[in-house]
Design brief:
The protein has about 250 residues and is an alpha/beta fold. It has 8 helices and 7 strands; from the N terminus they run βαβαβαβαβαβαααβ. It has a single domain, classed as NAD(P)-binding Rossmann-like Domain (Rossmann fold, 3-Layer(aba) Sandwich), CATH 3.40.50. Strands 3-2-1-4-5-6-7 form a 7-stranded parallel beta sheet, with helices on both faces.
Length: about 250
């Protein structure tokens, strides 16, 4: 039997990068998937490809988060897996970061996890699994990324608090913490820092395994945490970074 056969899953930030790879893998493993993204066209195209449902949404909006969950329940009759993956990054120091940029990073990266869990957990009537995308920079500091580091540290510790609060309801909550992964966001970082992509990519590969990760590799880790193979794992911060933090 496939790992998620008969399960209903939501993937936020599902139109590209790690979210897209995970939605594709979830569908391959038998799940019915709701693809939520601010990119309506990208979400719609992927949902059509995998036989899922697309929701155009801003995950920093309470109304939009509630609508994502309701869409899953209405379309597929319930909810079993939530992958809180939507996120943005601003590569700057505190001195150069605008207050509005700080607020937006916190809204998309942190507030969204709270909101999606607030509305998803009551829909997980038979238990479930929540996976939140943290980062290696949620576990250690990084340069020129103060808002991102702070937001991902919040996600990692919020994950632990959620795991404690909802274990008795049969809901497991874990975070997956990628290192540099070849996604549109990584290329956006190079653009923000005004660095040559080849040089930036080479720097990202400076880790024991000698390369950056792929979205498919992160998706495999998410699938593990979402599946019954991880039935006794909750409150963990799984690092998937080619040895970077080591």
């Amino acid at each position: 039997m496939s790992a998620l056969e008969g399960k209903v899953a939501i993937v936020t930030g599902g139109a590209s990068g790690i979210g897209r790879a995970t939605a594709l893998l979830f569908a391959k493993e038998g799940a019915k998937v709701v693809v939520a993204d601010i990119d309506a066209a990208g979400a719609s195209a992927l949902a059509q490809e995998i036989g899922g449902v697309a929701v155009q949404a801003d995950v920093s909006s309470a109304e939009d988060c509630a609508r994502i969950v309701q869409t899953a329940v209405d379309a597929f009759g319930g909810l079993h897996v939530l992958f809180n993956n939507a996120g943005i990054i601003r590569r700057t120091t505190a001195l150069d970061l605008e207050v509005e940029e700080w607020d937006r990073v916190m809204a998309v990266n942190v507030r969204s996890v709270f909101l999606m869990c607030k509305y998803a957990i009551p829909a997980m009537k038979d238990g479930g699994a929540i996976v939140n995308t943290g980062s290696g920079w949620g576990l250690k500091g990084g340069g020129n990324a103060i808002s991102y580091c702070a937001s991902k540290a919040a996600v990692v510790n919020m994950t632990r608090a959620l795991a404690i609060d909802h274990a008795k309801a049969g809901i497991r909550v874990n975070s997956v913490n990628p290192g540099d992964t070849d996604t549109p966001m990584l290329r956006e970082e190079a653009r923000q820092l005004q660095e040559d992509w080849a040089a930036f990519e080479a720097d990202a590969a400076d880790r024991p395994m000698g390369r950056s990760g792929t979205p498919d590799e992160i998706a495999q880790a998410v699938l593990f945490l979402a599946s019954d193979a991880a039935s006794y794992i909750t409150g963990s911060a799984l690092v998937v970074d080619g040895g970077g933090l080591a």
